Amino acid sequence: MLEDRGTDTIFGYPGGSVIPIYDELLDSSVRHILVRHEQCAAHMADGYARAKNMPGVCLATSGPGTTNLVTGIATAYADSVPLIALTGQVAAGSLGLGAFQEVDAYSLLMPITKHSYRVLDVSRLPHAVSEAWEICRMGRKGPVHIDLPVDQINSEIDEEILKEEYGVKPLTEDLSGINEAVKWIRESKRPVILVGGGAMDASEEVMRFAKLTGAPVETTLMGMGAVPSSYGMNLGPLGLHGRMCAITATREADLIISIGSRFSDRTYSAHDRMECRDAKVIHIDIDPTEFGKHGHPCVNILSDAKKALTRLICALGNRIPDISGWKQTVLSYKERCTCRTDSDSVPVSPRRVMKELGEIIDDGTIVTTDVGQNQMWAMHYLKIEKPRQFISSGTFGTMGFGLPSAIGAKAALPDKNVITVTGDGGFQMVIQELSTSVTEDLPVTVVLLNNGVLGMVRQMQKHYRGKRYSGVDLGNKTDFVTVAKGFGAVGVRIDKPSELRDAIKEAAGSGRTTVIEIKTDAEADILPMLPADPSIPIIKDGCCF
Ligand SMILES: Cc1ncc(C[n+]2csc(CCOP(=O)(O)OP(=O)(O)O)c2C)c(N)n1
Question: Do residues 124 and 153 lie in contact, with contact meaning Cβ atoms separated by under 8 Å?
Fold first, then answer.
């Protein structure tokens, strides 16, 4: 059934309870990617799904195989990524008896999936697969779990059952707020458009809306790529480490038009909230549970972003207020928001890495990131022009996401150049997947910012704990070039900024998995940084006005 629906790749790791599935895989067209740790099977399926915009599938055996999937599934759930997680289970008749490798996977995964099926009778399997496929993609996307007791997947199914039709309940929509939204847009003198991950499939409509209203645009981490970085009125990312021009514009706005963003604490901080308390909010979202969290007067439009924007554009017509003064103001903020990225310093400045990397990113490139300073530097400085070109773990902030999600993206779109930006902490959580990348011939380029520390945590200790560094020193003993070679990949060490561009270019064009280890400055901070406590001032440096 998955094959019929277009699944061409499954990321997994076998064990006794899923041997029947592995046996069937031999006779199917589906490619199986054997990972080195199940967490990475879920991250790879996640990267595949984000890059290709179709469900990713991961597969693990019962017990420890299933528990190893948990972080990867939670990551996909938190970022609304469509995934199907198949887990083996002990025989239906042994459930609850503490059989070998039994775990209550259904309960374990229920809070981090949109739905969880336990197939106690194989005749219900087609129903579960068919619904899972629909549920993971419809409305707010997310993972669905199917638990498969081994005796059931070992038994035969009546072919007639496969012909049955299954349906899921249509989505509820409420577009009744459109007229009020139009009124608010026409009254607004200082609107901003906040674009989140929910707008990823509506980038054309977002651009039409942005150009029609002329309102400045800012994105969340998940919204990167939904609006091209090169669009003049794109102020860049909002958030804890966002751009000061976007942060300042939001604070001065009288109307925030949010498209597929959920006002998370990392994007829309207590700092921002304090400053723009009186701003109104037009909130377009497919998930009604996200409405009202921001505490502003609001109009909520419960709908898919594409549909809501099409209606809104039509209802606005050409009666658009003149906001040229506001546009000039925010553009002057944008001009002041410039940072030096050309430093020749050694150890290398992470900003310089982003500058050099940025020069080689084209439409055929996908960038994934890990979590930490490396991720925030990538978000802050890379120019991303297309939807689904930038893949990062937002809400769950999962270290170790970068490399496996890159491998998943490469499996999804083999013609793309896939580059992952990572730190030495996160990379070492999943470093074994270099072996998967090499063995399965899914080459990716790893841009490793090796600062020898858990940089993001260290940065917080530096600023909030008076430089009392605790538990953040990774030491500088690991030779990543040798480790890369040990896995059959290419390893390159960069000490000088001038060597960066050629090294990245060569790696990307080589068709081989390459780790580019760049010794970076542990003292470099990603700024600005907005403290969680709004009474503490924003920490800035020379490039934040
Ligand atoms: C699995 C996991 N454990 C812990 C954290 C908390 N955390 C967030 S960023 C960070 C440091 C990351 O260090 P590194 O990978 O070296 O990247 P850097 O910040 O130096 O770029 C830590 C420990 C996390 N996000 N995920």
Answer: no
Query: 332-341: per-residue pLDDT in tens?
Result: 999 998 888 8
Q: What is the Å distance from ligand 1's center to 538 Cα?
A: 22
How far does residue 456's CA lie from ligand 1's centre (Å)? 6
pLDDT in tens, 155-182: 998 888 877 777 788 789 999 999 999 9
C-alpha span between 408 and 41 (Å, rounded): 8
The contacts of residue 306 (CB under 8 Å, 6+ apart) are 201, 202, 205
Q: Three-state SS for 508?
A: helix
Report which protein residue has its CA nearest ligand 1's atom 1.
Answer: 399
Place of tokens 């990131």: 369
DSSP β-ladder status, 417-423 and 365-369: parallel
Closest atom, ligand 1, to C-alpha of 522: 20
Please name the helix (run of DSSP H) or strand (run of DSSP E) that holds residue 144, with its range, or none: strand 143-149
Residue 369 phi/psi, 5° resolution? Answer: -130, 165
Which residue ranges in the chain fall short of pLDDT 70? none
466 vs 76: CA distance, rounded Å: 35
Using a cut of 0.90, tell me whether the model's pTM lies above it. Answer: yes
The whole-number pLDDT of residue 44 equals 99
DSSP at 496: S
Q: Closest Cα partner for 507 from 492, 495, 529, 525? A: 492
